[in-house]
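Here is the promised in-class demo. Please do not try to memorize the tokens; focus on the logic of going from shape to residues.
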């Protein structure tokens, strides 16, 4: 397969439309039309990462953190970023990143952290909103199943663990075809009544164009009538963070569990070690912005990275907080990438980067 196919598999799981506005997920450098010789997985891309890819003959690097996070005005060997890009492009290596889109995906980073801890009843801590639309179309009754199936095949009607969800309402459509029209039913210049079905489906906004094209291709009318209605509904299956329940354990016991699960050399935390932990909120990476959501969720402790001193002091009387480190909390992104690609491409060479190391050292 070519590298575009590899990227498509990642984006089917974590569509780029899910990324935050400040992010730059996606293709960082390279030619996606090249045949993929293998994939190197890493949290960050550094100069040694490209060297490792060359040594193993892998021409695709997939990282969690984008190397091009902010705009740059020039590419030269005077900077680390420049050297990485020059080396990669010169050697036919493509670099692709899935960052906050992987964080916000249904089974993304925070959800994986929750699974690793054995949490139950896992749900999204801060669901995204304004990401859904309702599509409604009017179609002759005899063609309703064909149109409904075409929309479902294009991605409409998926709600959580259910798919092909729709609602139908029978009614009567009225119209008159003007001169120049080519009506499927009715005559030019005459009012026509037709038994029609109104089909309603919910869909991700990002798929609305594809779904509408599929509907139009399947619809018998020359000029189908349809609605696109933006929804304010929260999308409970995409968003930031995760929260779930755990078998009751002491604070001290839970901290030990965090250290063992995420291979933490040290953990910064606040809270009473005698406190019983039954509900846990998490966010991979820098998640202090979700502390209020963690409190609102009823969590006993919030686990994330990059917590500032004043984040601890501001919320210490409301919830226990554990900072396990940015790197430690997002290492699971590589296992997510691996599972996606192994399932889609069983014969593809996939390697975790040996050069992917935590820049922060602990004494």
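The designed amino acids, position by position:
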């Amino acid at each position: 397969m070519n590298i575009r196919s590899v990227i498509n598999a990642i984006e089917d799981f974590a569509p780029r439309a899910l990324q935050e506005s400040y992010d730059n997920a996606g293709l960082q450098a390279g030619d996606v039309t090249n045949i993929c010789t293998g994939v190197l997985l890493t949290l960050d891309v550094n100069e040694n990462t490209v060297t490792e890819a060359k040594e193993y003959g892998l021409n695709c690097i997939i990282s969690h953190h984008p190397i091009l996070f902010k705009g740059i005005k020039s590419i030269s060997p005077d900077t680390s970023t420049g050297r990485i890009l020059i080396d990669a492009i010169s050697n036919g290596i493509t670099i692709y990143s899935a960052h906050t889109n992987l964080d916000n995906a249904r089974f993304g980073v925070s959800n994986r952290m929750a699974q690793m801890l054995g949490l139950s009843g896992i749900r999204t801590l801060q669901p995204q909103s304004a990401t859904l639309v309702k599509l409604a179309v009017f179609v002759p009754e005899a063609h309703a199943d064909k149109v409904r199936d075409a929309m479902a095949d294009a991605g409409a009607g998926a709600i959580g663990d259910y798919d092909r969800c729709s609602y139908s309402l029978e009614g009567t459509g009225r119209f008159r075809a003007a001169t120049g029209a080519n009506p499927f039913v009715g005559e030019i210049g005459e009012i026509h009544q037709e038994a029609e079905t109104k089909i309603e489906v919910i869909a991700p906004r990002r798929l609305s164009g594809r779904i509408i094209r599929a509907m139009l291709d399947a619809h018998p009318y020359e000029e189908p009538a349809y609605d696109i209605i933006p929804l304010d509904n929260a999308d409970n299956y995409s968003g930031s963070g995760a929260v779930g329940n755990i078998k009751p354990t002491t604070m001290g016991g839970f901290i030990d569990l965090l250290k063992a699960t995420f291979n933490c050399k040290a953990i910064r935390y606040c809270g009473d070690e005698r406190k019983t932990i039954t509900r846990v909120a998490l966010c991979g990476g820098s998640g202090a912005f979700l502390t209020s959501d963690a409190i609102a969720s009823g969590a006993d402790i919030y686990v994330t990275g990059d917590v500032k001193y004043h984040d601890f002091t501001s919320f210490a009387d409301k919830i226990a907080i554990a900072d396990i480190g940015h790197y430690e909390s997002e290492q699971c992104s590589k296992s997510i990438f691996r599972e996606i690609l192994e399932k889609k491409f069983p014969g593809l060479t996939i390697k975790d980067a040996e050069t992917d190391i935590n820049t922060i050292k602990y004494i």
